[in-house]
Structure formats: C-alpha cells, structure tokens
Design goal:
single chain; 265 residues; alpha+beta; Four Helix Bundle (Hemerythrin (Met), subunit A); Nonspecific Lipid-transfer Protein, Chain A; 5-stranded mixed beta sheet; two-stranded antiparallel sheet; 10 helices; 7 strands; globular; metal ion binding; DinB/YfiT-like; Mycothiol-dependent maleylpyruvate isomerase metal-binding domain-containing protein; Maleyloyr_isom
Length: 265
Amino acid sequence: MSHAGVEASRTLAAEYASIIRGLTPAEWSASSRCAGWSVKNLVAHTGSNFAAIVNPAEPDPSVPPPTTAEELQDRLVDERWDWTPTQVADEFLSTVGPAMDVLSAMQDPAIASTPMTLTDLGTYETHQLSDAFAFDMWCHMYVDLLAPEGPVSRPVDGSQEALLGAAIGWMLAGLPQMCPTVNTALDGRTIGLRLTGPGGGEWSLHPGATLLSVGSGLERTDTVITSSAADFVLWGTTRSPWRDHVSIHGDDTHAARVLDTLDIV
C-alpha cells in the first residue's frame, strides 16, 4: 500500500493550493522552469490531472488516444491554454480535495493491486498512483514553480524534504519501465545507488533479461552512485546534469554510461 504517498500528496496539495490562492497576475504569466510552460500552464497541468481522476472524460472515438505520457499531458494543458488564471485556479481548487479522496480510496485492498497502465510509463498497481502524484507535485512545486529554480518566491521552511520519500519511491518504482536503456547500459553488472538526507536510502540496480530491477541495500556491487535525495529529483529527471550532483565510488566509466541513459518522467 502507498498510504505514505497519500499523506504526502495531501500535504503537498494543501501547500500548492495555498500558493495558488496568492499568485499575482505577473506570477501567473511568468515562465516556469518547465520549458514552454508559464506558471498558469504548470498549475493547469496539475489541476487537469486532479480533474482526470475525479471526473474522467469519456474518450472521443474520433481522436486517436495518446501513446505517450508527454502527449497526454500536453493535450490536457493545450485544452486549457486560453483559460484565465481564475479558471485554472478554480479547477485546481475544486478538484484537489476530491482527488486526494480518490487516491485514498485506491488503497482499498479490493482494488489496490489492480494493474494500471500509464501510457508509455509502464504498468503499476493502482495504489501506487498516490506516489506518482506526490512525485509530480514535489517536482513541479519545489523545482519548477518556487525559487530558486522557479519564478515564484515564497518562504520555504525546509520541511519539504520530509515529503521526499514517496516521490523517491515512485522514481525507483518507475525506473525499470521508464528507462529500459539503463538495463542495456548496466551491461550485466549491478550498480549501487546511495541517496543521502530525507527520503534517502541505499538500493541496487540489477540487470535483467529485458528490464532492470531495483533492490533494497547495496548488493554485489563495487560501484556506487551517491547524491542527496533532493538532488536525485533534479538529475534523475534530467532537470539538471547528473555531473553537478553525483559522486561515484568505483568504475567511473561504467557509472557514467548508466547515468547518461537515466531520465525518469
């Protein structure tokens, strides 16, 4: 179950909603850290995802379904491109509570393990969607929206790192399916990942026949990649070059080949 993901999502959503209520006209129109998206587009992205799980739209048989997550998200934002900031804020604020209730309901044992395919991102158990939302909100709020990386300055007390656990969990759960080329780069050799600070821990990336697997602890490896958990969100999503954040103990060349192929969505 992903109860921690639900609680992290609720906390992040409440903070996000508070920020949205106080955005100025200049902040709404500012460019976010997401290329091509303003703050309004960024908020529309999250609000549209809330709406999608609260009130799923009936598919239009005349429109081919999206084949990638990027295409799906771009469609949702494009549909709201001409909305006013008030309309975008209203959708977010009216659906955020019900969306959190949906994520909580997905922890019910009767449906928690039901497979859910997320376009090209892979297939996961239904309960894991709460971790996905925690990851998405953490990235977009603390990296793409708020300073120093984003355009909106608000006091941040540092407690956001305590919410990283669910986001990191989603990144590691998604890594095998989202980054299949990492398995090739492993070249039959296990490599370790050590993340420090809140949300951190130690894991091993094991090569597989088609996809890698992620195991707890450092096992059968003489090469370990180390960074803070907060920095992993940056370089693991290629928002920032891994070389700016990572130290390598062991085979630098092998680790670099693996890191160059990693891009978690």
